[in-house]
């Protein structure tokens, strides 16, 4: 009986203080590990392809693609960090209390720039569609780099306030050995909620709604302008397709963002659980991370240049001399 109980503990040698592993069937455990490992690997590979493509080919060194590069770098590291979340899915943390705190800190500062990059992308697209004549003067390489730097510098500062408190006595809130619990300060958590979720989602929804309205109005204006032409029927179909495409893009961006991030921030918003236990909150955390796997599909796979660059990368043609000068657009 002792052997059976010991096998269910994170640290069998510590019978009185060790945490217990959650009870799961072998099939369920294997399914979870295979699924999350696949997502982690896919996230890292897809975003690495985006990073190599934009970094290597000179034609892709545009302000818009710099934002995509920032997004891909953040999401690439999210794929790496997911490995630690997978290890912790059995309810046991084997790396010590200090690494528990640092792990939470690192996970935060590499996921938030992804959200910030999405906001910059929405601003970029808003200016490009709603103010096309001023795009080249408003969206410059220098301004984009400044915005990207802000996305990567303010998360460490915000989370650093909470880190100081957590490092005073790591693991003080753990109820057993092998648990990884980090207490979130109320003020820091509120600031995180406002600037990491409420403000970004508001900006994204407002700007994309504006983009959608402008796209639809342009399509209708074109249809009205050519209404007297004999090809009126085909123009009408084309206009409707444009409207549907705009609606689809808006829906994909906003819905995916909401589905992946809402569960995590809803827990924070309700304040029902200020002690984030990675074992009990595995689903919402992994869903939060899964957004990083979908980002390269949404923001990069829709671009023809990405498919062409992936082909050149896979066939190792980028190793040829002057391959960076290849016409990729």
TrEMBL record:
Q: Name one GO molecular function term.
A: trace-amine receptor activity
The protein's topology relative to the membrane is: Multi-pass membrane protein
Query: Pfam families recorded for this chain?
Result: 7tm_1
Write down any Gene Ontology CC term.
plasma membrane
Q: Where in the cell is it found?
A: Cell membrane
Q: Does the keyword Protein biosynthesis apply?
A: no
Ranges for the G-protein coupled receptors family 1 profile domain?
46-299
What is the protein's major site of localization?
membrane
Whether Transport counts among this entry's keywords is no
Transmembrane stretches in the record are: 30-54, 66-87, 93-123, 144-163, 183-216, 250-270, 282-302
The entry's keywords: Cell membrane, G-protein coupled receptor, Membrane, Receptor, Transducer, Transmembrane, Transmembrane helix
Question: What PANTHER family does the entry give?
Answer: HISTAMINE RECEPTOR-RELATED G-PROTEIN COUPLED RECEPTOR, TRACE AMINE ASSOCIATED RECEPTOR 19P-RELATED
What is the official name of this protein in its record?
G-protein coupled receptors family 1 profile domain-containing protein
Organism whose genome encodes this protein: Dicentrarchus labrax
């Amino acid at each position: 009986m002792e052997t059976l109980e010991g096998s269910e503990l994170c640290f069998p040698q510590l019978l009185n203080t060790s945490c217990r592993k959650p009870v799961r069937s072998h099939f369920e455990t294997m399914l979870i590990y295979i699924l999350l490992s696949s997502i982690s690997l896919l996230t890292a590979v897809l975003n690495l392809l985006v990073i190599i493509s934009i970094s290597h080919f000179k034609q892709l060194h545009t302000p818009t693609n710099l934002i995509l590069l920032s997004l891909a770098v953040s999401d690439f590291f999210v794929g790496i960090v997911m490995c630690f979340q997978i290890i912790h899915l059995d309810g046991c943390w084997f790396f010590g209390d200090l690494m528990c705190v640092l792990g939470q800190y690192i996970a935060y500062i590499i996921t938030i720039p992804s959200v910030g990059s999405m906001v910059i992308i929405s601003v970029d697209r808003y200016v490009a569609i709603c103010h096309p004549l001023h795009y080249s003067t408003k969206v410059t390489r220098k301004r984009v780099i400044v915005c990207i730097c802000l996305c990567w510098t303010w998360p460490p500062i915000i989370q650093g306030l909470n880190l100081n408190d957590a490092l005073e006595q790591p693991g003080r809130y753990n109820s057993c050995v092998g648990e990884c619990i980090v207490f979130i300060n109320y003020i820091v958590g509120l600031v995180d909620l406002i600037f990491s979720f409420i403000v970004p989602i508001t900006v994204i929804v407002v700007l994309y709604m504006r983009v959608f309205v402008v796209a639809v109005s342009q399509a209708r204006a074109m249809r009205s302008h050519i209404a007297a032409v004999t090809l009126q029927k085909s123009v009408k179909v084309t206009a409707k397709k444009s409207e549907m495409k705009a609606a689809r893009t808006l829906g994909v961006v906003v819905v995916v963002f909401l589905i992946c991030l809402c569960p995590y921030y809803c827990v924070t918003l309700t304040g029902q659980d200020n002690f984030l236990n990675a074992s009990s909150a595995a689903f919402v955390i992994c869903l939060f991370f899964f957004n990083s796997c979908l980002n390269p599909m949404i923001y990069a796979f829709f671009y023809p240049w990405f498919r062409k660059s992936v082909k050149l990368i896979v066939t190792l043609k980028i190793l040829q001399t002057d391959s960076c000068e290849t016409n990729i657009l």
